Amino acid sequence: MRSTLARLSWPHVVVTLLVIALLAVAAERTLAWRDAERRDEASAAALAAAREHALELTGGTVDSAGLAELDDDRAVVIVAASGKAGPKAKKKAGAERYRFRVTLQEKGDRWSVAGVETVP
C-alpha cells in the first residue's frame, strides 16, 4: 500500500506548499499591522502628553510637535510653543517662542514626563 504522500501528484504538492506560504505571509502581515497600529496609538498619546506639558510650561500655545524617537516604553517629542513662562515673562510685552525636547516614559496606559530640555 502506497503512502499518502506518494499518492499525491506534484501539482497537489505545489498547491499545498503555496497555500502554506500564503498563510504564513498573511499571518506575518497581520502581526506587522497590529504592531504598526500600536505604534500609531502610542505616538499619538505621547504627542498629546508632550503638548499638554508644553502648554503648562508656557501658558500659551503649541505651534507644532513632532515625534523624534519612540521605543516600547519611552518617547522623545520636540515641541515648539509660544507664550509667557517664568517670573520675567510678566514684565515683557508679547509672547516668547520656545522649543522643548520632552522625554516621556510610558507607565501603564499613560505617558508621564521624564524630562524637559530647552532646545536652542
Any key phrases for this structure?
120 residues; alpha+beta; 4-stranded antiparallel sheet; 2 helices
Please identify the structural class as seen in this structure: alpha+beta
Strand content: 25-35%
Strands ordered across the widest β-sheet = 1-2-3-4
Number of helices: 2
Low-pLDDT windows of residues: none
Number of strands: 4
| Mean pLDDT value | 86
Name the overall outline: rod-shaped
The residue fraction in helices comes out at 40-55%
Radius of gyration: 26 Å
Account of the protein in words:
The protein is of the alpha+beta class and 120 residues long. The protein has one domain. Helix content is 44%, strand content 34%. The protein has helices at residues 4-7, 10-58; strands at 61-70, 74-83, 96-107, 110-118. The protein has a four-stranded antiparallel β-sheet, with helices on one face. The longest helix has 49 residues, at 10-58. It starts with a helix and ends with a strand.
What topology emerges from the helices and strands here?
Layout: H1 4-7, H2 10-58, E1 61-70, E2 74-83, E3 96-107, E4 110-118
Antiparallel strand pairs: 1-2, 2-3, 3-4
Please give a quick description of this structure:
The protein is an alpha+beta fold and 120 residues long. The chain has helices at residues 4-7, 10-58, and strands at residues 61-70, 74-83, 96-107, 110-118. The protein has one domain (4-118).
